[in-house]
Structures are given as C-alpha cells and as structure tokens.
Amino acid sequence: MRRSAKPFITLLALITLVAGPAWPQQAGPADRPGQRQDQTDRASARGIFTLIPADTTTQHVLKAPSGDLPYTATAGTLDLFGQDGDRSAKIFYTAYVAKSPTYSPSERARPITFAFNGGPGAASAYLHLGLVGPKILEFGENGNDGTMPVLKDNPESWLAFTDLVLIDPVGTGWSRAANDDAAKSFYGVRQDADSLSTAIALYVQKNNRLDAHKYLLGESYGGFRAAKVAASLKNTQGILISSIIMLSPLVEGKFLANSDDPLSAALQLPSLAAAKLEHENQFTPEKLADAERFAMSDYLVGLSGAAPFGQAAETFYDRVAGLTGIPKNIVAQTRGFVGDVYAKQMGGRGKIVSPYDAAYAVPDAYPEATYNRNDDPILEGYTRAYGAAFVAYARNELGFASDMTYNLLNEDVNRRWEWNGSRGGDSRSLASVSTDIRDLLSVIPSFKLLIAHGYSDALTPYGASRYVIDHLPAELAAGRTWLKLYGGGHMFYTKPQSRLSFAKDIRGFYEGNLPN
Predict the structure, then answer these.
(1) CA 429 to CA 345: how far, in whole Å?
(2) In the chain, where are the structural domains located?
(3) How far apart are CA 459 and CA 383, in angstroms?
(4) Do 394 and 401 form a contact (C-beta atoms < 8 A)?
(5) What pTM did the predictor assign?
(6) DSSP reduced 3-state for 485
(7) Neighbouring C-beta atoms of residue 178, cutoff 10 Å
(8) With contact defined as beta carbons under 8 Å apart, do 57 and 73 qualify?
(9) E-assigned strands of 82-229?
(10) Residue 101: its pLDDT value, please?
(11) Superfamily for 63-254+384-449?
C-alpha cells in the first residue's frame, strides 16, 4: 500500500492483545536465572491460554437454494508444541461440516477447504462473514455502512459443496503464542507456512479426513500464504493439496504498488481504467480490453524510455489522462507514473479513492494536502465491523465466549514480519510464489489453480496475476490455471452480484465444470 507509514494489510486491527504479561513466580534460594525465566515463560503461557475457552460444537441448518443442509459447527483451537514438549501456541479455527443421519465413507470424501486471510496479521473473519460461511454480514442499503451491520443467512455459502475450516494464524483472531518470545517463531513467511501446515495436518488426522480432496483458499497475502502452505504440507506433512483458490492475491512482491517501475505501472493501469469506467457507469469488457492493449504496449514502452516530448508527449499524456480520469497536467508531472497520485486525483475535486477499489470515492478529509493523508475508506471504514460481528456471532450462535479481544488485524504482526530472512516492507519486494506454483503444477498432476480478482483493485491488480499465469510453461498451465474477474475491488464479494457470480463459478470449479 502506498500510504504514509502504513503497512500492507488486508483488514484493520481491533484492540490487540498479542500475549499476556509474564507472571513471574517468586524465586527460591536454589533457583538459577535460567530456571526463573523458564518459570516466568510457563506462567505467562498458562495465563494467556486460560483466556481461551474450551472447544464448542453446535448443530445448525443452512437454508440453501438446493434445500436444507444440516451441519455441525466447531469453534476451537489446535495446540502446537515446541521441541521441549511445552505448548508453544493455540491456533483458533472454526469448522463447518455438512452431515446426514448416517456418516458414510463417501461423505468422508467430501471436499474440505482450509481458508485464511492475509495481512500478514489478518484473522479469517473477513472471508468467514464476507464470503464462504453460513452467515453473511451486510452493510446497509448502499453496502458501505458499518454502524449497524446485519448478520444474515448466506444462501451462497460454500458449505453447499465443501466442508470448511477457517483458520486464524498465530497473533490473529483468538490464536496466541505462549509468550512474546515464542511469537517470534511464527511471524515470518516460512514459519507461518509451517505452523499452518501443522495445524491443517492435525485437523485432518484428528477428524479422519485424509481421503477428502483438500483445497486452500486465501485472500491477499493469504493467496501468497496458500502457495507456501501447500508446499509445506507436501514437504513436511506428506499431504498433497488438490487445488488452491487465490482471491486478490499478492503473487509477486515486486509488482505490489511499485509505482516507479514501468512494468508494475503497466500491470496496474487496466485496474485504474476499469475504476474510471465503473465510476462513470461505462464499463464494458471491450473498453477495458483497449486499455489493456495500451498498457502493455505504448504505455510500457513510453515509461521505459526517455521522457517523451513535443507532440508525442501530448498524445501520450492525453491517452493516460483519458483512461484514468487523472488531470493531464498531473499525468505530465509524473511522466505517466500515476501510482502515487491516482488516489488523490481520480475521484474528482475534494474526493479520495481507495486502492482497495479505485472506483469508490469519498470526501477527502485533507483536501489541502498535496499527498494522500486520508484513512482508507474501505480498509478503515465499514469493514472494521467484521471483527465485532464475528465476536458476537461466535458467542451467540457458536457458544464460543472468550474474555480475550479478537484481533481482526494485528499491526504488530505486520511490522515484525520476516519476509526473506529480514523484517520490514522493503524486503517484501523480494517475496514470490511463482516458483511454488510451478513446482505444485509439476509434481501434482491433478493440481489446479484459480485466481479471482475485482477489476478495480489497484492494490493487488489483476494484471499482475495475469502476467504470472501468462509466463507459466504452457505444459503446466493449460487447462489447470484460470484467472476470473468480477465487478468491484479487492473485496469484490462485498458486492452481492459479484459474490453471486463468483459462487456460481467456484461451485462449478469444485464439481469439475472448469471455467472457460
């Protein structure tokens, strides 16, 4: 995200509680310093874990278009242990399993999908109440009011065709490490993938689901995470994933809001063009295709070479301004690199647009500022309601009542994240899952990948995912990889029609009716 001093995240944090304070015990005369520290760590672990309730199991019925579907919901935790045998973390999850009067071997083979959000530092409440779960959170008549959200039955719940396990990585939701020192071993690309693959393996073995097709679903960094978890499951647990569904994913860090790189800018431009068309109610795939051709031809060439001048400059800047709605003089000032100015310039005078959906504009809180100071209207607006809504849902309908706050997104996790052996946003540019995707396609002949994006997502633009898919070896990609696009932005499924279209497509994907 190209905003002042704010990390790339998928959701905003509620009040966070990463780990409880250490509760030291009084040292006896024979205690050595190492023993005292060990006692402190153990006391801290006992303290934080006592705030997490016991697992709960409840019975429900999904009112689906195809008829009533009884299911069992489990809200609980999976324990992770260190080499010393002590519990190092508890990972919170919510599982939904469709049931019938008798549990048959064929029912055991029903697909099961493990889902997580991104951040890093985001809990699963967003996908849970926004897309796949049996309940959906609605934000008022216009879909953007989080002051009085309403939780309703979700007729498009994925439970109709797959069992679901929604997982909160350590430091998010109600998942906690034993103490702050232990948390360090979870806050990184490899560590995170290994801990989640362990949690998935534990769930599979405890619930006898080895013979089920196993899918991974991840949004934003969660898409990146899904590829890493699939590799870890294969390499450390001997579990092979059937398919991955990535929503608005980070695939290549070098393409993420890298506004001074010609290729990154070219991959982002069609999303900005889609936003302008959508804002003007002029969107058609044909008009967008024209912007896509320009982006990867004259625009990319124009940015890569010396600054244009004369009539060539006039023509070039006119075209970029026409596609994006950014004033021509601003386009000229940036030499056509508009990634740092579109938020302040695309919405019109006194407006600001969100990188999560560049078609969504609100009044700018700081119109006198020359740079974007505004809170993000989607990230820091109505989507905050997912956290409190999930707490109420878990307490009132799942019977899971915790005295610990629920971390919708933990910004401390994001700040401390280890990308490639180092921490901080700069190292994120080296992050990549292209090789993981290639390896999975190569060694698992039945493996499939579906990537879904909203057209007007300027944060993780669909052009970057298309570029990665287009550069896969044809022998791997043909008939096994798909890019699907929908109206809306990063969280395109908050739009009812896009959610409905996506649900129809994804059901076909699970049932073998593969996308065009």
Answers:
(1) 26
(2) 63-254+384-449, 258-338
(3) 16
(4) yes
(5) 0.88
(6) strand
(7) 26
(8) yes
(9) 87-98, 112-116, 135-138, 150-153, 163-167, 176-177, 214-219
(10) 42
(11) Alpha/Beta hydrolase fold, catalytic domain (3.40.50.1820)
